[in-house]
Design brief:
Elements: H1 2-17, H2 30-33, E1 47-52, E2 60-63, E3 69-70, E4 78-79, H3 85-96, E5 105-111, E6 119-124, E7 130-133, H4 140-146, E8 159-165, E9 168-174, H5 176-180, E10 196-199
Parallel strand pairs: 6-10
Antiparallel strand pairs: 1-2, 1-5, 3-4, 6-7, 8-9, 8-10
Length: 204
Amino acid sequence: MHLMKHAAVAGAAGCLLLLGGCASTVPPTQAALAPVNPDYLIGPGDSVNIIVWRNPEVSMAVPVRPDGKITTPLVEDLPAAGKTSTQLARDIEQALAKFIQQPVVTVIVTNFVGNFNEQIRVIGQAARPQALPYRRDMSVMDVLIAVGGITEFAAGDKATIVRNVDGKQEKIPVRLDALLKDGDVSANMMVRPGDILVIPESFF
């Protein structure tokens, strides 16, 4: 029993040593580990389907431009990025009120990219390193499925999540090998918007 305790302490110390040179070398705070459930915010590259009740001629799907704005036949250069679909619908209603009496608008996001600070970025030894749009209740396993897992050269249990907490970067150890190879669900932590999953290469 004592040996197991010593091993656990040694393992924790090893994890902390891996954080050398990080912005923070202390264990992640409760704020860093707490899950969040924000509403999806529209970002450049998204596609939105604008439905105007009883006005099919102005109902259409449009892309959100790189500058974060959308344009429809009656509404030009309306900011969309950083808004929820409900907020954008209310803004479109206000703009259309000049032309249509009491417009009722519904906005449906059909292609998700999201704002840069709302994405999950995966770098290093992932099968397909990429930026992913954050989804509500998204976990590390969800991220790994989206990127096709890790490569045979990955040091999965040395992976970290870089997270911005109260303006400071914290590095949180992630045990990907334990999750993928051993089925240890305790390693399946929740991710947050803006997280960066770093998967280093194994040198053994």
